[in-house]
Amino acid sequence: MPKLLMIFTFFSSLFISFTSLAAVYRCEVNGVQTFSQTPCGIDGGKEIEVAVSKPQQSIDANEKDLFVNSLDELSNERTIRDHQYRIKALKQQITTLSEQARNEADQILIDNRNELRNATNEHAQALYDSKINVIKAKYMDEIQGKKDEIKQLEAKIEELQG
Fold first, then answer.
1. Which of 2, 28, 47, 58 is the most buried (most CB within 10 A)?
2. Is 150 exposed, middle or buried (0-12, 13-18, 19+ CB in 10 A)?
């Protein structure tokens, strides 16, 4: 690999040397100013000197560290924002699931009103409780899973901010 680097450096220096030796002429043709590598027009144009700029020097270690730290901070901010959006979406999903559970519970009450009226108080309450427990089982596991995910995301946010 060092041999390849030496060859590249050699040809690069030749290219820079030859380009810096090339002449540039400023000419005026039909009232329009042009530039050429060869003399132009009757008078050959005026040769001008072109300054060759040095290649950009590499950044020092401190500048590199600042740059890397800035990128890390931006990445953390993006991750935090993504987590916050996810938390917001999860909270909305929890609200929606809770509303669905309440609606189903209300519908059970409406659908079974006559059955509940005709049953004894104890029997009616047991019937209603069993149907409500089915609804709770249906929704509570999903809601709890979303709450657990929110806690995990909040912990990650706290870790990123700390």
1. 28
2. middle
